[in-house]
Amino acid sequence: EVQLVQSGAEVKKPGESLKISCKGSGYSFTSYWIGWVRQMPGKGLEWMGIIYPGDSDTRYSPSFQGQVTISADKSISTAYLQWSSLKASDTAMYYCARLIAATSGMDVWGQGTTVTVSS
Amino acid sequence: SYVLTQPPSVSVAPGKTARITCGGNNIGSKSVHWYQQKPGQAPVLVIYYDSDRPSGIPERFSGSNSGNTATLTISRVEAGDEADYYCQVWDSSSDHQGVFGGGTKLTVL
Questions:
Q1: What is the pLDDT of residue B84?
Q2: In this complex, is the C-beta atom of B45 within 8 Å of any C-beta atom belonging to chain A?
Q3: Which of A106, A107, A111, A114 to mutate to probe the B interface, most B CBs <10 Å?
Q4: Contact of B37 with B43, CB cutoff 8 Å
Q5: Contact at 8 Å (CB) between B28 and B89?
Q6: Mean pLDDT of B53-61
Q7: What average pLDDT does the structure give for chain A?
Q8: Which residue of chain B is at minimal alpha-carbon distance from A45?
Q9: Cβ atoms of residues B62 and B68 within 8 Å
Q10: CB contact A36 to B (< 8 Å)
Q11: Chain A residue with minimal CA distance to B103?
Q12: Which residues in chain B are closer than 8 Å to A36, comparing Cβ atoms?
């Protein structure tokens, strides 16, 4: 079964760092792009960026460039999303998803990771 | 950047047909993908490349795309179809990124 399994919920304080993960299984992890999507409470989906685990080619949406870092470790079939200094406005659900093709839609989604940033 | 416009809400009676639109400048020249998201769950792909259905998605779900509007059509609507629906395209013009519409809440009366 093709699946993406994300790390668990996080509660952090403003200014703290964080790295969440997304582990793929059941398919060739290095052959598909992985994307990250933000969903703030009660809001819609926002495209953050994508990474190709085969060579770590990474592309960010302009709104998220410089705000987060997307990375991958192909040896353990895992993609990451990290922050160096969290803000309260980073409170959201974050999903990883597999892209059908490089410039396409997302056919397999992780279960989501809730990030809460509060003092 | 490319903008996708969806109606905030659509209501339909059970057994009827629901049509959810996604507007964008010359969207007919792009491939459109549709997602269903039920409360507390991750999105699920229901239509890709305008009109293809992933395995496991009922034939009641169909898609079309032409001109400035893409449409997700749900025939013989069931109570279980009540959810938020999002369209998505790839913006290859300037940002080279995916773009989501604002989402449409489908209510089954």
A1: 98
A2: yes
A3: A106
A4: yes
A5: no
A6: 97
A7: 96
A8: B100
A9: no
A10: no
A11: A44
A12: none
Distance CA B62, CA B48 (A): 10
**Portion of chain B with pLDDT greater than 90, in percent:** 93
Size of chain A in residues: 119
Q: What is the pLDDT of residues A58-102, one digit of tens each?
A: 999 999 999 999 999 999 999 999 999 999 999 999 999 999 988
- Tell whether A62 is within 8 A of chain B (Cβ): yes
Tokens standing for A58? Answer: 């990474």
Maximal C-alpha separation, chain B: 42
DSSP-assigned states of every residue in B49-102: TTTB--TTS-TTEEEEEETTEEEEEE-S--GGG-EEEEEEEEETTTT-EEEE--
User: What pLDDT is stored for residue B95 in this prediction?
Assistant: 66
